[in-house]
Amino acid sequence: MAAQDLDLPFSHFENDPRLAFLPAVIEALPDSEWFVVGGAVRDALLGRPINDIDLVVRNVRLERLEVVLASRGSVSLVGRNFGVLKFRPEKIRAEIDVAWPRTERAGMSGAYRDVEVATDAILPLEDDLARRDFTVNAMAWDLKGRKLVDPYGGRADLESKIIRAVGEPERRFGEDYSRMLRGIRFACELGFAIEGETWRAMTRLMTHLDDVRGGERVVPYEVIAKEWIKTAAADPVRCLELYEKSGSLPRLIPELAPLSKCLQSPDHHAEGDVWTHTKTAVAKLASPEFAAFFPGEKPSPETFFAVLLHDIAKPLIAERRDGKITFYGHPDIGGVLAKKIAERLKLSNFAKGGVSAERLAWLVRMHLFPNMVDLGEVRRTTLVKHFFHDRIAGRELLHMAFADASASLPEGGKPDLSTLGGLIDALADIDRQLAEQSEEPGKMITGDDVMSATGLGPGPDVGRILELIREAQLRGEVKTAADARKFLKKAHPKE
To answer: To 10 degrees, what angle do helices 391-406 and 380-387 make?
Structure first.
């Protein structure tokens, strides 16, 4: 067992309120050995925030451990059959996994659920660490001995910024094919390289993402979606690069393959084919230009997928007209396709930061609007509808419009962002106006009020009048319900 003296990073564990219960528990169980394992150790060494804490305990019967822990908090029986107790210390909201050391014998089907678990209170800790995916996650901190347990060189790989599989990569991935996507996520989250043999094993085995066993996917889409969304959130550009180079992208979204063979007219797209344009657009999400255009903002995973799919329909409807290549109607058709892809990949099933299929479809359908809008003609209520009714979607639309426009190179020229810039200025003005208003647009007067004041019956004319009032409110001409009634009488006097 490799061991090192106490380092400053691990002082965190001695002061973490989530572990304040340990001294009393160790006193009650003097022969027990306690270890922090996995990601918490990795993040402590990297100086990153420590979210979840997992513990392994040796040399104590599970039943006795359960009794002692129950005196210091609440214990859930979930996972007990696998030698895992879910423990919530008193006055702490966080839940901690407390487990016996265990080994896992995988069926080598690549299914993360196809595993036989064996637990043993006296199992060497190194055997427990050997079952883990990557060396940077296969370290432990001995809380009683105050030393690092690192039998597989995880600390050295952290210092070298390398993601390396524990043991033989093909065997590690054959136990659970989702580990390949997890490795890509770690590489993007940490900014690390993937070690050569580990990467080659990924590329050889990535075809197994499509494996089906017993009528079910070996790697469920829900698992893929979770990894992909987290990876895109960390680094959208490298995420796309590694998914493409590893062979996972064409397996997950085969609809993207025709984009590389779909040419575009050079007068508007001198950058090249649709796939070249798409990859360039994704790259713009992490560019200095994006940071300057949207100070303090970061593109969401939903924006990443919207940009990735915004031209998905172009190969289906490409036509040559008058010597030019056209794609009339591609946003609407693309919206339909994007929704189907999102639903197939279960992108919305990831509870934290999931991608809405409906919103993704809307973003793809609307992606041309911000760069084509005529501010002299468009109603301000239309802008409020698109950009303020759902502010998150509104910002995502602006972000993807920036990426699209920045990646569109006219022949012999530079990308044109003037329309988008003007729109952003106009939206800032509207935002200030909305903040100053005591009442939201449309709340001052109802359709019934309009019909009573004008003598109109139900119909589109009532809606148009409400729009006029909303426009007047956005211009600052209407600030109260009384103002709205006066405006109504003036604009449409009752006959």
So the answer is: 100
The Cα–Cα gap between 64 and 84 comes to: 13
Name the packing angle between helices 178-190 and 196-205 (round to 10°).
140
Q: Can you give the pTM of this predicted structure?
A: 0.84
What are the pLDDT tens digits along the chain (495 aa)? 344 444 667 888 888 999 999 999 999 999 999 999 999 999 999 999 998 999 999 999 988 999 999 999 999 876 666 678 899 999 888 899 999 888 766 544 444 555 556 677 888 999 999 989 999 999 999 999 889 999 999 999 999 999 999 999 999 999 899 999 999 999 999 999 999 999 999 999 999 999 998 889 999 999 999 999 999 999 999 999 999 999 999 999 999 999 999 999 888 888 989 999 999 999 999 999 999 999 999 999 999 999 999 999 999 999 988 878 999 999 999 999 999 999 999 998 765 667 999 999 999 999 999 999 999 999 988 999 899 888 899 999 999 999 999 999 988 789 999 999 999 999 999 988 877 765 554 566 777 777 777 777 776 667 777 777 777 776 667 777 777 777 777 766 654
DSSP secondary structure, 405-440, as one string: HHT---TTS----HHHHHHHHHHHHHHHHHHH-SS-
| Domains annotated on the chain, with CATH | 8-155 (3.30.460.10), 161-252 (1.10.3090.10), 258-436 (1.10.3210), 447-491 (no CATH)
